Amino acid sequence: MYANDYDGFIPTGGNPTWTLEVPSIWRLVTSSEPGYVGLGILSMGWRETGKGKYLPDLAFFLCPSITKHFYWPRKYYHRTWIYQWFEYPTVDTNNKGYINYARNIRPYSDVNLRNETRSKVDLCAKKGLIWVADNLGYYAWNYGSPPGSEGYNHVTRRDLLPAGMNLLFFDGSVKWINDANHRLLYTYRYNCYGTESFWLLTQNNFK
User: Alpha helices of 32-133 — where are they, by DSSP H?
Assistant: First the structure.
């Protein structure tokens, strides 16, 4: 939670160009920019040592209940892809890594979601903001409506959990939200980017 945090400010996790893609952990586009994005800093050093600095195995980033039949999970959200490309040192069109968890980027991004601003963990905690959600919903333009119909986690009951999601808040607490048919994502728009209204929800919305 406090990876690379030495002063109470939220670490952005590297490459600001791709910060708005909330499930990204690695995106090496040019040799002049760092490849880490978001939660990727938790596994820094994995490729060199076989063990991440704070989170030892990249598999922890992949939810066991992920749905396999949608396009994006088949292409990007699996071990083979993430093991191949995380911290891959050469610029390549495929050099990117995604996970099944979405993070709130609003507290530390400007209005254009490109440039880092400074925000503290304790201030976000006082506001009751969501930090990470273990359910990822994409706008499913290829698969019908409503938006967010690619809600990936906890939909096939493979992990024996009901439909819904865990929410990690900035105060460190975690709450399970029952959300049959993923209406939460539909109502507040999908949460795959930082602009959706989902990320404006707080702990008060889930009492």
Answer: 46-49, 71-75, 79-85, 121-127
Q: pTM higher than 0.70 for the full model?
A: yes
Judging by beta carbons within 10 Å of its beta carbon (0-12, 13-18, 19+), is residue 178 exposed, middle or buried?
Answer: exposed
Distance between CA 60 and CA 19 in Å, rounded? 20
Of 69, 102, 135, which one is at a domain's C-terminal end? 102
Q: Which of residues 67, 102, 137 is at a domain's end?
A: 102
- State the DSSP code for 110: -
pLDDT tens profile 98-156 = 888 888 877 765 444 445 556 778 888 888 999 888 877 766 554 445 544 565 667 65
Q: State the Cα–Cα distance between residues 101 and 85, nearest whole angstrom.
A: 18
Asked if residue 88 has pLDDT above 80, the reply is: yes
Quick one: 95 and 110 in the same domain?
no
**Dist CA 34 CA 115 (whole Å):** 14
CA distance 116 to 96: 20
Whether residue 75 is found in the same domain as residue 141: no
Length of the chain: 207
